[in-house]
Amino acid sequence: MPGRLAAGxxxxxxxxxxxxxxxxxxxxxVTGYQFIxxxxxxxxxxxxxxxxxxxxxxxxxxxxxxxxxMRRPGRPLKLARSVALCIAAFQEDPEYLRQCLRSxxxxxxxxxxxxxxxxxxxxxxxxxxxxxxxxxxxSDGAASYVWAGNFHAxxxxxxxxxxxxxxxxxxxxxxxxxxxxxxGGKREVMYTAFRALGDSVDYVQVCDSDxxxxxxxxxxxxxxxxxxxxxxxxxxxxxxxNKYDSWISFLSSVRYWMAFNVERACQSYFGCVQCISGPxxxxxxxxxxxxxxxxxxxTFLGSKCSFGDDxxxxxxxxxxxxxxxxxxxxxxLTETPTRYLRWLxxxxxxxxxxxxxxxxxxxxxxxHHLWMTYESVVTGFFPFFLIATVIQLFYRGRVWNILLFLxxxxxxxxxxxxxxxxxxxxxxxxxxxxxxxxYMSSLLPAKMFAIATITKSGWGxxxxxxxxxxxxxxxxxxxxxxxxxxxxxxxxxxxDLFTDTELAFLIAGAGLYACYWVALLALYLAVVARRxxxxxxxxxxxxxxx
Length: 546
What we know:
Blueprint: H1 2-31, E1 34-37, E2 44-46, H2 47-71, E3 83-89, H3 94-105, E4 113-119, H4 126-136, E5 142-146, H5 157-173, E6 176-181, H6 186-197, E7 203-208, E8 211-213, H7 217-227, E9 231-240, H8 247-269, E10 281-284, H9 285-296, E11 299-300, E12 303-304, H10 309-319, E13 323-334, H11 340-361, H12 370-396, H13 399-424, H14 435-452, H15 474-494, H16 500-527
Parallel strand pairs: 3-4, 3-7, 4-6, 5-6, 9-13
Antiparallel strand pairs: 1-2, 7-10, 8-13, 9-10, 11-12
């Protein structure tokens, strides 16, 4: 009874705190309270801006403190625990798969068991098994099996039972195992690896087939789990493999670094990383086996969930009260879309899982540090505040208000990029400020489209062997651009004549905005664009290739 009472009080207290945070932000936004402003309100600084500024400052501070903690030398690690690496593959580019398996072969973790599960068992999928044997098959411990079904479509009862036993025996008896199974989606592939392993190992590492692993990544994640029994899962630093393939992959690379080394590092300081990324993560197998069936059979609004697998795995760990961590000492390289449409579809899929898992995550706020509640409220509702601000400015403001908003967006981007340059020690991070335009023009409408289509399932992006172009992601972007252009035209038409002061601000602001873009684009062309024609330069990490 006292335990239930304490839990009830924590739930009530956390709910009140979340309501207070949201209410405070909403009040600051609606009232528009300003600390200082010019005579005609051409420039001002208010409470809402101060709240967002303090949030970014706190996030940067805790990320810095977590990096200091990660740089401390760890205690000598006794590699007495058993670890399995599970790799999910679907229509993978042959060269990416080779690079992935070669990096697996170089992992510095004695006794590591490797399970590659291919989502597909047809003739067009056989090349992945051939690559598996080409890279890992020299060892006597390598074996493969083409399964006509999978765990949830096993076939006739007699044959099904034999196939399941064979798969489990193959995975548990061989150091390297490859399973080709009936198509069922990424979650089906991951389930096969987890279920076949059962309780035969202590820890399970996850990896995608387009990922190149640092030789020390497994040991570094294992160290985090071994040092603190309260930690149930840990993720590593995911960087971009094809960084210089295009402008979209380059901007993704700086955004990835920011997401992992600032946002997730901050969450890790409080033990509540909300997504352990699929390319590089590790879990306690006892926990994973505990919620495996619930994870696989997850539904949302009556529909079975088939995306957001990694985020839901993390949420399941958090739901049990265990901590989740991030370590920059474990690294990997992974592929990212190089074309705008494929990137847009990927971001839409990720946004769907974010909003869906936000609701699930809210059920466990009371089991973790208040920072998780605070950050979830701020980041979860920020896109809606931003859209409301944009609509209001473009339809009810003045031309100067719109220009000031654009300047503010880029200023915040420059400040975040400057801090990232300091934290990473790499001036290349200054290009992070360019990502703000991509966020405002594309990612923001994609988030709203994700909410509208949140029950639609699928892999979201095509396999990398054959790239399929999907134009549906352009619908929300086109609507958003039309809304903005319409608002700009309406504001310009309705505005009175400019005063001399306003005209001076407009000229100065437009000049400053133009200078920013000219300087950054010139720097991009001089530093980045010329490297895109030299693919050998994209592999900056020592563990990329031998």
